[in-house]
Amino acid sequence: MPDLRRDPIVGRWVIISTERNGRPHEFVHLQPARPISTALCPFCPGQERLTPKEIMAYRPQPAEPNAPNWTIRVVPNKFPALHVEGDMGREGVGLYDRMNGVGAHEVIIETPGHTEGLADMPAKKIEDVLWAYRDRIIDLKKDLRLRYILIFKNHGAAAGATLEHSHSQLIALPIVPTSVINEIEGCRAHYEQKERCMYCDILRQDLSDGGRIVAENPEFVCVTPFAPRFPFEMWILPKRHAGYFEESQKTQFEFLAPILSDCLRRMDKVLARPAYNFILHSSPLHERTGDFYHWHLEIIPKLTQVAGFEWGTGFYINPVSPEESAKYLRDAEL
Amino acid sequence: MPDLRRDPIVGRWVIISTERNGRPHEFVHLQPARPISTALCPFCPGQERLTPKEIMAYRPQPAEPNAPNWTIRVVPNKFPALHVEGDMGREGVGLYDRMNGVGAHEVIIETPGHTEGLADMPAKKIEDVLWAYRDRIIDLKKDLRLRYILIFKNHGAAAGATLEHSHSQLIALPIVPTSVINEIEGCRAHYEQKERCMYCDILRQDLSDGGRIVAENPEFVCVTPFAPRFPFEMWILPKRHAGYFEESQKTQFEFLAPILSDCLRRMDKVLARPAYNFILHSSPLHERTGDFYHWHLEIIPKLTQVAGFEWGTGFYINPVSPEESAKYLRDAEL
């Protein structure tokens, strides 16, 4: 009998329908991550002139901007979805609302190595990527027109990457997206009723239960959520309550980097290096939601085709239970 | 400057970012609809034994069930996401909620012709498909465990179809999916404030404005929505307020079939027969939302890759404005 499960935060129901389900290898290579282009890569050292002028870079030795010899480099997206300049132009058009696409769209080039993926890097290098995320959020937070910053990674063509050189993206928005509002409102309702953070309650239950734990260390835990939209979906959460990713302390990044590395390598092992997305979920910039909202990182391997049913309802059919996903991931030999 | 637009019903913002945009042919064949299998087709006449036993069929002459000589045939999905038998088994698991996957999952085989798509059929045949939808909803509505019925079509492999023989699907759910709740709540708030249906207001404004109209006839209109998630997304709505698809009168289906045919053919012409989904949005079965919710059909050609950003936020980047999509579709020579 399929299982219907409700996400306790946003109230979204999913069908866990494992009857068509086989072992992980049956999900493998629906659309594998693979080289997209062998053309001259704009993210490689020596090709800096092919990107817009850099916003920030980490270099072991001081050097001119846009010179090689960087370890991480942040540049504006060449085809930005939003523009930094301009006024908001908020207006109503009859019953509709619109505004200008003011915001920022940046690319975080994670490594000078063209073929080095995040899962291949030593944890210390991943820690620097996390610092780059933090530094960009703190800088953009000064712009009071911006209300939300989304950091995400598309890895592999099937997950939407158009360049294979490992990179993440940042989009800063003048509005808070509805699904973030839904998560926050779910947490707010729980907090108002119980004076506790919903994600903290989830962590307590899941750590005690154990069946959906993928990995943990003193500061972080990786779980498969109770009502996952996708097979092998994973969430990494700080164990201690924290609303804002960018307020993390140095020691926290020292624990986040290895667990992220560990989880990506488990996923690569079980699913044979799938395309994937990850998305950082953190509090809106200027709203005091930090008491009841708990930042986390969602990792979604791109294995299934999302069809009309999902678009029509936001109601997902997932062929693998999170307990089974977690077991495969936990048992992977690294 | 990209345009940020808000859907007036669910409050979802989208970016209309046309700077990377070219003409429609540039969207063509990202993943074309194509034959999936030449193996023995379970939906062809004479192969009736390859499906579960039929639930209903239209036949010009009376005949035994599961015999050939049908024009439309409805069968249970061979790999159902939900099962009709069983009790609900609603339970809490600590802070989580779950229930058994009780419901129905049916396939509406729209034609005996293996290669005939919905867009190839005469309007009269499409009308019969609409009657089949209606008949199944009315039958399933008697089961008081069911709270929502979703009818949708995946056409082409890229849109999630696993068999190429033209068919739609029906999923009857014991819950109302969250995105339907979001639409209904948006409409309820508008109605409480103004005593008017939000979609009726949209129709009035769009018909007067004209820029997003694709096609219309005395009973229906097809528009591109103001804040579309996807390029060339279309909504077909009854002009007169109606909350329940299944309460449509005969004359309404006589007008719905030709406008659906017309819009699919316009889409095929402009986008060179893309894969697509359509999803019927109608009121929940046993809640009196019909005063303020307005049923409609959403058509989504499958042209773009949905990446991490969209999953993370429910916030879409659309490279084509709905005014431009509507103009291309309106101007298509059929």
From TrEMBL, chains A, B:
Zn(2+) binds at residues 41, 44, 114, 165. One of its GO terms (biological process) is galactose metabolic process. Its EC number is 2.7.7.12. Gene3D superfamilies: HIT-like (3.30.428.10). The keyword Nucleus does not apply. Its cofactor is Zn(2+). InterPro entries: ADP-glucose_phosphorylase, GalP_UDPtransf1, GalP_Utransf_C, GalP_Utransf_N, HIT-like_sf. Keywords: Carbohydrate metabolism, Metal-binding, Nucleotidyltransferase, Transferase, Zinc. It holds the Pfam family GalP_UDP_transf. The keyword Nucleotidyltransferase applies. Transmembrane segments: none annotated. One of its GO terms (molecular function) is zinc ion binding. Residues 4-177 form the Galactose-1-phosphate uridyl transferase N-terminal domain. Residues 191-298 form the Galactose-1-phosphate uridyl transferase C-terminal domain. The active site is at 167 (tele-ump-histidine intermediate). Binds 1 zinc ion per subunit. Coiled coil: none annotated. Belongs to the galactose-1-phosphate uridylyltransferase type 1 family. This is Galactose-1-phosphate uridylyltransferase. It comes from Nitrospira moscoviensis.
